[in-house]
Amino acid sequence: MKQRLRVCVLGSTGSIGANTLDVIARHPERFEAVALTAHSRADELFQQCLRHRPRWACLPDPAAALDLQRRLREAGLSTEVLQGPAALEQLAAHPEVDAVMAAIVGAAGLSPCLAAARAGKRLMLANKEALVVGGAFFMRAVQAGGATLLPVDSEHSAIFQCLPEARARWPEVIDHLVLTASGGPFRQRDPDSLHAVTPDEACAHPNWIMGRKISVDSASMMNKGLELIEARWLFDLPPERLKVLIHPQSIVHSMVVCRDQSVLAQLGTPDMRVPIAYALSFPERIESGAAPLNLLDFAALQFEAPDLRRFPALALAWQALRGPEGSTAVLNAANEVAVASFLAGSLRFTGISELVARCLEQVLPAADEVGSVAGLLELDARTRAKAQELLGKP
Ligand code: NAD
Ligand code: MG
Binding positions for Mn(2+) (predicted)? Predict the structure, then answer.
């Protein structure tokens, strides 16, 4: 019998985490969820442990971790509860873990992702911010550790699915990539009214159900900006060979334009279980739980060029991508602070890009900050401090 793949799900209580557990549960003969980690939703983590009976669970807060341990014992489970940030790295690199689903949101996922990369795991990457912050350094860690990096972001999974299995052949095949974007909830809204939109309006995505941070990023199109940067590293392409098209139906998940002008695309209903299932089963394919795509449900598939006045965040991502190394880490940290502030009701929606632009001007990455995790985390912290300071004096 084939050995089951032992999966560690970092961020199991989130949208990607829950979808991953859904796919795993459909294939008990193939996959085993051996480690589950969450940030705060202890009750949900408890329920997931009852369902999946992992060997390890992890919560950062010591009191919450102790409480979870007690509840699991009372329920008759032998799951061991770990706590603290070092525990995430320990689980991601554990010899009895084969694959890591990186589904933490934000730069907080960088260190555990690097730990998985260095330990040579099958690293299924949803946590795009980790790659946006880590850039070249992250990719070197993947190579040095002999890890298999598999994209989970739907656009990057689409591109990956269109490319030959042998990475060495990618440069010979690709002319350029086209990332598709839904345009989010504000695609047709008057740009002059965007200053007044609420967090709930920004999180009401027309096609995808996702965590709140990525939903706001989709509304500002910073998400597509982060994805351009992600594509730059995953597929090793310069910015001029990356393009973005708005495609409101979210059916064509992205495209590879080949040297011979043949265009390859991957299509499907918008359901993250498809790219998750592919990352879990690659190079094979398994049932994902997604509904079949019926093209007859669509009278037309539309494509539009993105309007950079409506979506200045996308222009800022291009700017960071072309800027000095480390600029994308500044972009990401400033955006994380801005989005948290918008969700808390203390920053206008249009203030998000304004704050990111000011941080890109005022925080200059130092050469010694981009060559180590400590340096990158220092740059991240320095940018967050600047963003907080700027929020204090508009
Ligand atoms: P989410 O907010 O629903 O879940 C985030 C998870 O990370 C939760 O389990 C939370 O407990 C954990 N977490 C949050 N902060 C943490 C911290 N500081 N330390 C440790 N754990 C922490 O987010 P999501 O929508 O599932 O997105 C997760 C990642 O996947 C993001 O990077 C997002 O950009 C990416 N992604 C998501 C989707 C989607 O459909 N949701 C699609 C593509 C990419
Ligand atoms: Mg995406």
Answer: 153, 155, 227
